[in-house]
Amino acid sequence: MNINYLETFLDVMETRNFNRSAERINVTQSTVSARIRALEEAVRSPLFHRGRFGAEPTAAGFKFLPHATRLRQIWNQARQELALPEGLAASVRLATQPSLRDAFVRDWLAAMRDNHPNIAVYIEADYSPSVLQQLSDGTLDIGVIYIPRALPGLLVENLFTERYLMIGAGPAALSDVTADDYVFIDWSPHFKNRHLELLPHLQATAVSVGLGSMAVDHILERGGCGYFPQRTAQMLVERHGCRIIEEAPVIEQPVYVVVGDQIRETGPVRTALDELYRIAERLG
Question: Are strands 251-260 and 243-244 parallel, antiparallel or unpaired?
C-alpha cells in the first residue's frame, strides 16, 4: 500500500473536503480523488460519501481511521530506526514545552544516556497544539505539555505539577512590587488565568515577555521580579543572589505526558516513560 494514500486519507478525515486536503498536501484535487479511490479498492470498501459540500466518512472510514493512524506511525518509526547509527538499537522522539526543556527534560536526557545508551534520543521544544499534531501524525513518540486535548489514538496522563515562584532582584515583599518593576511572563494560558485571579494589579505591566530566558536576562541586568518555575527560581536565588518575594502566592500548573496508545508499551517508549516518571516523582 502506498503511504501517500494513507496520508491523504488521514488529511481528508480531518478536513472533510477533497479540495481543502489538496491545498494542504500540495497536490491537485484529482490526485486526492485518485488516491482515495485506490485506497478504497485496496480495502474493498468505500471510505467517504462524496457530496456537493464535502466528503463525509462512511462507517468503514471511521473503522479504518485507527488502523491508518497506526500504519503511519509504524512507517515513520521504521524510517527512523533504519537510519540509526551503528550501535543504536532503537530511537525515541520527544517534544516538550520550551519552559520545561532546560531542567526537567535535561535530567531526562541525562538519565536516558546514562542508563540506556543504545537508545537514540531526539528532543525538540514546541507548544502544545503542534506537539499534539505531531503525535497524531506519528512523527513524535512522547509529548510533555501544558494543554492536553483528547485526540483519537492518544493517551493523556498527569505527569507532575509545576510550581511557579515569584523571585527578583530588588523588591523583598509582594507589597513592594509595582507594575513598573514587575516582568509578566506568559508561561501558558492556565498560568495567565491563575495570575489574573491572584494578582490582578500586576496584569498590565511595563514589560511582558513570552520566553523565560528573556525575563531572566532583563531582571539580572535591570532588576525587578517575575514568576519562574521552582527549579529556575532556586537557581537564580543560589547563583545570582535573587530572593523569593515574600507573601507572593505560588501558582501551580499541571504538566501532562501524551503518548500514542498503540506504542505506549513498546520497548523504547516504555523505557523513556519510566525515566520521565522517575524524574517527575522526585519533583513531586
Answer: unpaired
| CATH class of this structure's domain 3-81 | mainly alpha
Nearest to 253 by CA among 196, 191, 199, 205: 191
DSSP-H helix ranges across the chain: 3-15, 18-25, 29-43, 59-82, 98-100, 106-115, 128-137, 189-198, 212-222, 230-240, 267-283
Would you identify the CATH topology of the domain 89-284? D-Maltodextrin-Binding Protein; domain 2 (3.40.190)
CB 53 within 8 A of CB 140: no
d(CA 253, CA 200): 18
Could you tell me which residues are beta bridge partners of residue 258? Answer: 143, 156
pLDDT tens for the chain, 284 residues long, are: 688 999 999 999 999 999 999 998 999 999 999 999 999 999 999 999 998 888 999 999 999 998 888 788 778 777 776 777 778 888 899 999 887 776 688 899 999 999 999 999 989 888 888 899 888 877 789 999 998 888 888 999 999 999 999 999 888 899 999 999 999 999 988 999 999 999 999 988 999 998 888 899 999 999 999 999 998 899 999 999 999 999 999 999 999 999 988 888 888 999 999 999 999 988 76
Contact predicate 257/144, CB 8 Å: yes
Question: pTM surpassing 0.85?
Answer: no
Instruction: Kindly list the domain boundaries of the chain, sorted by start residue.
Output: 3-81, 89-284
